[in-house]
Amino acid sequence: MIKIIEVKKEGDIVSSMLAQRDDIERAISEHGAVILRGLNVRSSKQFGNLMEGYFDSPLLSYHYRSTPRTELKANVYTSTEYPPDQHIPQHNENAYTNEWPLFLGFFCLVEPKEGGATPVCNSHSVYNALSEELINKFESKQLKYVRNYSDIDLSWQVSFQTEDKQEVEAICKQRNIDFEWITDSHLRTSQTLPATQVHPVSGKKVWFNQAHLFHFSSLPTDVQEALAAQMSSDMYPRNVFFADGSEIPTEDLRFIREVYEQHTVFEPWQKGDVMLVDNMLCTHGRQPYSGARKVLVGMTRPHSN
Fold this sequence. Notes:
Elements: E1 3-6, H1 13-19, H2 21-31, E2 33-37, H3 44-55, E3 71-73, E4 76-78, E5 88-91, E6 99-110, E7 114-115, E8 120-122, H4 123-129, H5 132-141, E9 143-149, H6 156-160, H7 165-174, E10 178-181, E11 187-193, E12 196-198, E13 205-207, H8 211-214, H9 221-230, E14 238-242, H10 250-263, E15 264-265, E16 274-278, E17 282-286, E18 289-290, E19 294-304
Parallel strand pairs: 1-2
Antiparallel strand pairs: 2-16, 3-4, 4-19, 5-17, 6-16, 6-19, 7-18, 8-15, 8-17, 9-11, 9-14, 10-11, 12-13
């Protein structure tokens, strides 16, 4: 299970956390995530102040996003706004690009009636559970993420958070993303990235990519069939290949998903819970749920490969 720490109130929220920093840091380094209870956080503003105060770093804006979400204020966002009956697979945030947050914070403002947990999985454990042959294949070939922005998935305006094409192009150039305007409203991007990373603190290798999530095979069968009937594979909203353009074997991706499932743990949300996650050491996802659910997220300390 995820490590849970009951925080003793000593002054304000940040002071209470800092008073137990050793315990919190130890839990994050060992498990990749920790749930803090007893802080009595009640608003998105308090949560944002908590994140910035504890990590001594501003929260990051969510540009080049891949899922729908809403910004509340000061770079605090809703978690991915997918329908409650949908499962969100394990993933490291922004592992599909070359810049990502080192730490995430989740805050449960409204706990779900049933389900709706945010499961986590240790990325180093996943790396160790994969075969040497598979790791060598993915590391040597690398991965190419391809996205088509249209009315099927997120538009480029939503993903890049701008209406300005020149700003989109500037972001792509800054992040080494190849781009092509198929039409005035249709943008296609691709980016080649490694399948693994070295954790900046532990020095250990972690499995750090979203191949299993971006690949066409991750979609429900009926959605795959519907898309295949409407368009060619190069027009799919999102897909991933090896860097040379060759297909990734679906059996490899199936095995990777099974490994994630075997190593995933979760703790049901309680109102007021704050979960801190080392984004390189730990993936996260979402269980389907019923009833109201409101979990907020903040990202901090940018990192790049």
